[in-house]
Amino acid sequence: MTFELDLLATPKAVPELRHHLRTHDFEVRLCATELLTNVIDHLGEGTPVTVRVTGTDLGHTRIEVTDPDPRALPTLLSASAEAESGRGLTLVDVLAQRWGVDQGADRKTVWCELATPGR
């Protein structure tokens, strides 16, 4: 099972991505849209991205979001109870078995791996 979608990171793209991933479980949809939202919030609307969802040999589901800025790295924050943002990567951190960033010269890929249900 492999899903790949090239799109522009815009608020309208978030529900569209959820729709494309409708056959996947809630955690996959949530993590994918949180990683996409990070691109919108930190790199700006209209940034070109590639979203990939694949199965791994270890029985995990891997979600990858690739963007063209290798310098803007995601940071796990502690959001206060009053904060209206800053929890997206925390959700990914809680739901994922592991997550990280692969940097290239002209891009980066933020990824996470979730346990596949039933395993």
Question: Top keywords for this entry?
Answer:
globular; alpha+beta; five-stranded antiparallel sheet; Heat Shock Protein 90; 119 residues; 29% helix; single chain
User: Major beta sheet, specifics?
Assistant: 5 strands, antiparallel
Output the CATH class name: Alpha Beta
Tell me the CATH architecture: 2-Layer Sandwich
Number of strands: 5
What this model shows, in words?
With 119 residues, the chain is an alpha+beta fold. It has a single domain (2-115), classed as Heat Shock Protein 90 (2-Layer Sandwich). It contains three helices and five strands; from the N terminus they run βααββαββ. The protein has helices at 13-20, 26-43, 88-95; strands at 2-9, 47-55, 60-67, 98-103, 108-115. The chain has a five-stranded antiparallel β-sheet with strand order 1-2-3-5-4, covered by helices on one side. A hairpin with a 4-residue loop joins β2 and β3. The longest helix has 18 residues, at 26-43. The radius of gyration is 14 Å and the shape is globular. The model has no long low-confidence stretch (mean pLDDT 90). It comes from Streptomyces guryensis. It holds the Pfam family HATPase_c_2. InterPro entries: Anti-sigma-factor_SerPK, HATPase_C_sf, HATPase_dom.
